[in-house]
């Protein structure tokens, strides 16, 4: 299995050949839309996504330079479409995102099968520029479009007894070729404590860079938690379940010594196979950016973990 291959360099750190061959294009800083147009034959998924109208959000807590659309949409972790970073962009065009239903169940007062328009107020979309940090040490700055996850969850009215919320990704091997392999246990499952899910920074995302979310980035509906490593952010969500027990999440099952439930970005807690003290901000190929505790969002979220041993609860 790819993620478990013993090596000093994780496979996920190896730049895919197709990305390497385009390094001059990225480094030249070509206009994002022009680059994507030129790459449409190689990366057809959502090449002409519909525009979305979103107001700038006061929750955009970084003024760092945004990562180009080309980088954001051609360098992804989405094992449902393949394990190398270029595979999602090559393969995700097979995913059909309409119609789409989300099953809401568990400890909730309004269970049911919901359409996206039932969960998301498209007249209240916000653009939030957030850092996104992957456990394999690469990072990006993305102008996400969506709403606070809390707004979505309040619509379905969780019961007071619910302590966690679980997100399940679509399982459809006919359209998601990575699911035809045993690289992970499918479907992909992630979860949050309710206070994490209800925090204002936690987003339900439907777009980025002013357009509908590309398939390779988790269309049509994904979560983003900016202070956690990227694998916590469930993509292509088809089920939201409320429970009083900590969910058994995919990577915590797969490799519990490497991927804990909390997955808070923490430079002082190394991955068993590499340090987390520094990161490489795409399109940079060198890990020369210092990693920030809670990905730089500590002022807003550290209070969620008061009294917790963050090395034990990694």
Low-confidence stretches: 1-47
CATH topology: Sulfite Oxidase, Chain A, domain 2
Number of helices: 10
CATH superfamily caption: Oxidoreductase, molybdopterin-binding domain
Provide the structure class. alpha+beta
Distance between the termini: 23 Å
Order of helices and strands: HHHEHHEEHEEHEEHEEEEHEEH
Q: Main beta sheet, described?
A: 8 strands, mixed
- The portion of residues forming beta strands comes to 15-25%
Q: Provide the number of structural domains.
A: 1
Extended strand count: 13
Outline: globular
How much helix is in the residues?
10-25%
Mean pLDDT: 87
Gyration radius over CA: 18 Å
Overall CATH class: Alpha Beta
CATH architecture: Alpha-Beta Complex
Plain-language structure description:
By secondary structure, this protein is α+β, with helices and mostly antiparallel strands. It has a single domain (2-305), classed as Oxidoreductase, molybdopterin-binding domain (Sulfite Oxidase, Chain A, domain 2, Alpha-Beta Complex). Helices cover 17% and strands 21% of the residues. It has ten helices and 13 strands. The strands form two sheets. Strands 1, 4, 5, 8, 9, 10, 12 and 13 form an eight-stranded mixed β-sheet that branches. A hairpin with a 7-residue loop joins strand 12 and strand 13 (289-290). The radius of gyration is 18 Å and the shape is globular. The chain starts with 16 loop residues before the first helix and ends in a 13-residue tail after the last helix. Mean pLDDT is 87; it is low at 1-47.
């Amino acid at each position: 299995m790819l993620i478990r291959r013993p090596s000093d360099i994780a496979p996920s750190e190896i730049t895919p050949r197709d990305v390497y061959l385009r390094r001059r294009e990225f480094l030249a800083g070509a206009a994002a839309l022009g680059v994507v147009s030129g790459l449409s034959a190689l990366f057809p998924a959502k090449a002409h996504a519909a525009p979305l109208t979103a107001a700038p959000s006061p929750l955009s807590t970084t003024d760092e330079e945004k990562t180009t659309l080309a980088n954001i949409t051609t360098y992804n972790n989405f094992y449902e479409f393949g394990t190398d970073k270029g595979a999602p962009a090559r393969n995700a065009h097979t995913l059909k995102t309409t119609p789409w239903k989300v099953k809401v169940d568990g400890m909730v007062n309004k269970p049911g099968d919901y359409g996206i328009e039932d969960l998301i107020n498209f007249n209240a979309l916000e653009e939030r520029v957030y850092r996104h940090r992957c456990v394999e040490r690469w990072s990006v700055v993305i102008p996400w479009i969506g709403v606070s996850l809390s707004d979505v969850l309040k619509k379905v009215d969780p019961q007071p007894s619910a302590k966690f919320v679980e997100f399940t990704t679509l399982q459809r091997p006919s359209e998601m070729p990575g699911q035809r392999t045993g690289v992970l246990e499918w479907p992909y499952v992630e979860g949050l404590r309710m206070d994490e899910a209800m925090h204002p920074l936690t987003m339900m995302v439907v777009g980025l860079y002013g357009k509908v979310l590309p398939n390779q980035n988790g269309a049509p509906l994904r979560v983003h938690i900016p202070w956690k490593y990227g694998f916590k952010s469930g993509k292509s969500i088809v089920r939201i379940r409320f429970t009083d027990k900590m969910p058994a999440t995919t990577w915590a099952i797969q490799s519990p010594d490497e991927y804990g439930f909390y997955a808070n970005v923490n430079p002082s807690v190394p991955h068993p196979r590499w340090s987390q003290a520094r990161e490489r901000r795409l399109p940079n190929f060198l890990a020369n950016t210092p990693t920030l505790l809670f990905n730089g969002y500590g002022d807003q979220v550290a209070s969620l973990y008061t009294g917790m041993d963050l090395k034990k609860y990694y």
